[in-house]
Amino acid sequence: MPTDSIPCRQGILIAFCLLQGLAMVWALSWMMSDDVVTKKPVKSAPKHSTYLCVGENYHTDSWKYKSCHFQDICYDGTNFSFYIDPQYPISIPAVNELAVSVSTLGVTHSAIKFAPEVVVGSFPHDPVWADEIDDTDLHVLAVEYNGSNFGHVLGDSLLPWWRLLDMFGLMEGDYPFRPIHMMIEPPFTYSCEWQIRAGWISDMSFCGRLYEKIAQPFSHRALVFLQQHYSMATNEKPICFQNLVTGIGMLSDHGHDHSVHGRNTEALDIHMVGGGPILWKFRSLYMQRIGLSSTVKPIPGLYDVVFVDRSSAHRSWFDTHEAYSRISERVAPIGAHVSSPIDFSKLTIKEQIEIVSRTQVLICFPGGSSYIALFLPRGATLIFVFALSHLSDGRQDYPLHNNMAHIHVRWLEGQKGENTGQVFYNVTHLEQEVELALVRARRSTPPL
């Protein structure tokens, strides 16, 4: 072996060892910095927060009508902080530019204002990220209103939650989101906490069960309370949110201060006019996210006519079983099937929608349970029996139902009895409305 080749071979060996060492260092650093199993990079702290707000009208109360999508915003157990990069002082928001209403406006009192604190300075170095707690990077912030009522949970929580996510392009397929309710003092009027203090309900479990029943199948994450779920009692690090949407003032089924969702004639609520496509899109996505087809059609002879029954005595009503007998006789000659009155509150939300989405005629009364009518199929008919003389059973639900472009809505006025609490109405009128609705449904085949 020539002696002059030995140094050359030693050099090659040294170079090979160095390359091997560098490769090991690179691989080790990659494994430490990333989740090798999921290939998900470790989140690095951004330099500042960002936002996109819509609905500005340049009035002093414009915050009531706005909605915002905040990115990389942090919560310290008391306040939210929005971080501005010191290099760009021009990005400091104007007064109320980040403010929104976390409550719906069509209720009995003023809106609840929310705005993060603007911090000109560095973003927290090593925060806890909410997506690590919740296994989702989408969060919706609001104040709860009347969570013991089916209609308010659907119209004042789920609908505005979805509209927030949808308007910012964040609602895709079955992707989960975490709904968050702020606890405020004094409690929001008619909220669950307010109802507990007023003696209407005993504890939060009633509202919790309703949200679990109606909301969680849609959000795929349980509703939580801000101050409890993100407490810093055992963690001194701030909790930061990649995507936090809020501002539901005009996004519920009613939308003006003190209108009491349309009950008072002097506060005419027209904000849902033209909202039929919005309601249909929400209906379709809700059904899809709970595992149902949104294009099912009625099957003749199955749920031709359905009565919504109710056991609660605090609202005036009529004898559904008597009406059921009368209607059954009336439509028997045309081969229509009338279902026995159904107490939908005893069914799961999936069972309720499976029935209603195949119903041709739904007969009910104003109030929370009527909101299941949102899931009627195209061409179906909703018939309200109501007493205009009884304030809590007036036409307070018209902003939603009268703007559902996929159904026919008929209002049958009666009078509240002085001693019975029942509504007396023209039964023949109801019979004719039902028969006409069935004939109309059979003559037309609405598109999907």
The share of residues in extended strands comes to 15-25%
Low-confidence stretches: 25-42
Please give the count of helices: 12
Distance between the amino and carboxyl termini: 86 Å
Q: Average pLDDT value?
A: 84
Proportion in helices: 25-40%
The overall number of domains is 2
What would you report as the Rg, rounded to the nearest angstrom? 28 Å
> Structural class per helix/strand content?
alpha/beta
Q: What's the number of extended β-strand segments?
A: 20
**Which of globular, elongated, flat, extended, rod-shaped describes the shape?**
elongated
Notes on the protein architecture:
It is elongated and about 80 Å long. The protein folds into 2 domains: 50-265, no CATH class; 276-443, Rossmann fold (3-Layer(aba) Sandwich). The strands form 5 sheets. A 6-stranded mixed sheet has the order 3-4-15-11-12-13. A 5-stranded mixed sheet has the order 9-6-5-14-10. Strands 16-17-18-19-20 form a 5-stranded mixed sheet, with helices on one face. The protein is 29% helix and 17% strand. The protein has helices spanning 6-33, 130-134, 150-167, 192-197, 205-214, 216-219, 226-229, 276-289, 320-331, 349-356, 398-401, 427-443, and strands spanning 34-35, 40-41, 50-54, 67-71, 73-75, 80-84, 100-101, 113-114, 117-120, 128-129, 138-142, 178-181, 224-225, 239-241, 243-246, 305-307, 361-364, 381-387, 408-416, 423-424. Strand 1 and strand 2 (40-41) form a beta hairpin. The chain contains 12 helices and 20 strands. The protein has 448 residues and is α/β, with parallel strands linked by helices. The model is unreliable at 25-42 (pLDDT under 50).
